[in-house]
Design goal:
The chain is mostly helical. It contains 5 helices and 3 strands.
């Protein structure tokens, strides 16, 4: 089965494994000790991360170490970037619309206040009987 980076980051456990080994290599036992799931379950997550190219396993003595290969996350970053630009454009347009709406309402409010002042100053123009 062909796996991609999006499958790797779809699972919270795998995201946490990536986060753990992003800063330093850890051997498989260290990784599995951080979770409340079985070692075979963690091994399956490690296998998926390896197939996706996000980590490599290196043998050092008796231990197998996981090392992060985070450059593969650029694929995700690029995909997200296109939507970031789209949403920035939409939010900029919304901001412009709201500013125009607020400006229009402010003008209407000023005109309304001026009318009220005129009425108070000169009366309603109606005679009292």
């Amino acid at each position: 089965m062909r796996r991609d980076v999006f499958q790797a980051i779809a699972d919270p456990t795998r995201r946490e494994i990536i986060n753990m080994i992003a800063y330093r290599s850890l051997h498989l036992n260290e990784v599995s000790e951080k979770f409340h799931v079985s070692r075979p379950a963690i091994s399956k997550h490690i296998k998926i991360l390896t197939e996706c190219g996000l980590i490599t396993i290196k043998q050092r003595g008796r231990h197998r170490y996981c090392e992060a290969k985070l450059s593969k996350l650029n694929e995700v970053s690029g995909w997200i970037e296109q939507y970031r630009k789209l949403w920035e454009q939409k939010l900029d347009a919304l901001e412009t619309y709201l500013e125009e709406l607020q400006s229009t309402q402010s003008s209407e409010n000023r005109n309304q206040k001026l009318k009220i002042k005129k009425i108070k100053k000169h009366g309603t123009g109606k005679r009292k009987r």
